[in-house]
Design a protein that fits this description.
alpha/beta
């Protein structure tokens, strides 16, 4: 990722205290890394859904005299990759439904580029596999991601505990897991980011848990409360966000975790044998 235009952009933003609006601009720029060196401040503002002065203030916050200076810098550090064009990414000539699908395909391509360096995922797999029990958190829009991960993880991990409902019981369940020996929590964090998720992660880390997060952006609100965050962008072209890339990343983390569990294959074979004996599935 560090050698890609998106990776170099992300490195440029790291270490800066960005406002929510500025994080939105940064997230947009990472997603459109091949295009941004050639966008005007007005065009970038329109893509990010912010005002043009916000883009100028963002450039100043990064230490540049203004947006033109930032754009000149971007043309040096994040040139477009061969074959990537704005027209190809913009889905010109397609209807809104096709454009939403094409945007998700681009999100998956971006994730594939991120996974060119497998070390963060492998590290996450080790952290998740070693936690007994393992907590999996996802509220509101992210609850389906957390539930899907927990469902499959329970087939190879001896003790998975799903946290998909907020409220005062949430911290109680974190406390109970810590008393039982938990050392890690996996969080799926997607827009719009519930305040409860940020508070839960802050509490979990204070309780000694290592937090692994799957979020829509490296600049998501949960970043400050995560020990390891792996981004996977969501699609925003429809009335409700789409989350193909976060779901795919969840399956990749499952694979990495299973690789660290010596009895994972035996557990899967045992389940298949019992499922066949019970006639659980229609053949």
């Amino acid at each position: 990722m560090s050698d890609s235009p998106a990776g170099r952009l992300q490195a440029l933003f790291e270490g800066h205290r960005l406002t929510p609006t500025q994080r939105r601009i940064a997230h947009c720029m990472v997603r459109r890394a091949a295009d941004v060196p050639f966008l005007s401040s007005v065009e970038l503002a329109e893509l990010a859904g912010v005002s043009q002065p916000s883009v100028t203030r963002f450039a100043v916050a990064l230490g540049f005299d203004g947006y033109p200076a930032l754009r000149r810098h971007l043309r040096e550090v994040a040139p477009p990759e061969p074959g990537a064009t704005a027209a190809e990414k913009g889905g010109e000539g397609h209807n809104e439904y096709q454009q939403a699908v094409l945007a998700e395909i681009e999100n998956l391509r971006h994730l594939a580029g991120l996974l060119a360096d497998p070390k963060p995922v492998e590290r996450a797999g080790r952290v998740l596999a070693s936690s007994r029990p393992l907590l999996v958190l996802g509220l509101r829009a992210a609850s389906s991601q957390a539930r899907g991960f927990a469902y499959f993880a329970a087939k190879v991990h001896p003790d998975v505990r799903l946290l998909d409902e907020g409220g005062s019981m949430l911290t109680d369940r974190v406390d109970a897991a810590v008393r039982a020996g938990a050392t890690a929590l996996l969080c799926f964090a997607l827009p719009r980011h519930p305040r409860e998720v940020v508070e839960a992660l802050e509490y979990a880390r204070a309780a000694g848990l290592t937090v692994v997060a799957v979020a829509d952006s490296a600049f998501a609100p949960v970043a400050a409360h995560s020990d390891l965050l792996i981004p996977a962008a969501v699609g925003t072209g429809l009335a409700f966000d789409t989350a193909c890339a976060p779901m795919m990343l969840g399956r990749v983390l499952l694979e990495a975790m299973a690789d660290e569990l010596p009895d994972a294959q035996a557990r899967l074979e045992e389940f298949d044998t019992k499922a066949a004996a019970r006639g659980l599935f229609v053949e």
